[in-house]
Amino acid sequence: MSQTIERRGGRALVVYRARVSGSVVLHVLDLAGIFVFGITGALVGVRKKLDVFGILVLALVTGLGGGFVRDVLIGATPPAALLDWWYLAVPVAAGLLTFFLHPGIGRLERLVNIFDAAGLALFCVTGALKAIEYDLSPLSAALIGTISGIGGGVIRDVLSGRVPVVLRSEIYATPAFLGAGIVVLAAALDYYALWVPIAAAVICFTIRLLAIRRGWNAPLPRTP
């Protein structure tokens, strides 16, 4: 993996790229996250008994929401979703695929959780990587990665009339912050390897699924 040194504001910014281009890796991961998050939005739409238009809307806003927020916060405007037709085609494809091939209602909740965990993992990593590329501080980059991961799910839940999962007692933002933090820490140590974001995504995904399976919750206030 080669490294390219750029200078912004007098500081050396290390942007690591794959042999062809790191932006290609980021692009593929971004589209993968959009696809799996689009599926979660569509599955929620199926569960809410929405028509095909409603399902596609949920697929679009869920798949693109986190990336929109990320790009606006770091100043990457217009957002990537408005510059590349793939960013619109992928969630639409996810929505249509779910509309025609969705399973029975009884399996929807489990699938939503699995795909949501996958989207959370992919977006927390891509969000952190893009924040690093824009020379944000380590803490800011980790927060951007977290926001990127949870953003689409929050919009999905609000539009479907559910309390956003991040506001409930379930452990949700913590795995995203951990995954983003691993990527940011490696960059802060000038360690760049393709396995780092992959490992970070796997760790985030695993912790989120374990939290669901074992009922790990954040502390709640005591009630008299």
From TrEMBL:
<feature type="transmembrane region" description="Helical">
    <location>
        <begin position="171"/>
        <end position="188"/>
    </location>
</feature>
<feature type="transmembrane region" description="Helical">
    <location>
        <begin position="85"/>
        <end position="102"/>
    </location>
</feature>
<dbReference type="GO" id="GO:0005886">
    <property type="term" value="C:plasma membrane"/>
</dbReference>
<feature type="domain" description="Glycine transporter">
    <location>
        <begin position="114"/>
        <end position="186"/>
    </location>
</feature>
<keyword id="KW-0472">Membrane</keyword>
<dbReference type="InterPro" id="IPR005115">
    <property type="entry name" value="Gly_transporter"/>
</dbReference>
<feature type="transmembrane region" description="Helical">
    <location>
        <begin position="24"/>
        <end position="46"/>
    </location>
</feature>
<feature type="transmembrane region" description="Helical">
    <location>
        <begin position="114"/>
        <end position="132"/>
    </location>
</feature>
<feature type="transmembrane region" description="Helical">
    <location>
        <begin position="138"/>
        <end position="159"/>
    </location>
</feature>
<protein>
    <submittedName>
        <fullName>Trimeric intracellular cation channel family protein</fullName>
    </submittedName>
</protein>
<feature type="transmembrane region" description="Helical">
    <location>
        <begin position="194"/>
        <end position="212"/>
    </location>
</feature>
<comment type="similarity">
    <text>Belongs to the UPF0126 family.</text>
</comment>
<keyword id="KW-1133">Transmembrane helix</keyword>
<feature type="transmembrane region" description="Helical">
    <location>
        <begin position="53"/>
        <end position="73"/>
    </location>
</feature>
<dbReference type="Pfam" id="PF03458">
    <property type="entry name" value="Gly_transporter"/>
</dbReference>
<keyword id="KW-1003">Cell membrane</keyword>
<feature type="domain" description="Glycine transporter">
    <location>
        <begin position="28"/>
        <end position="102"/>
    </location>
</feature>
<keyword id="KW-0812">Transmembrane</keyword>
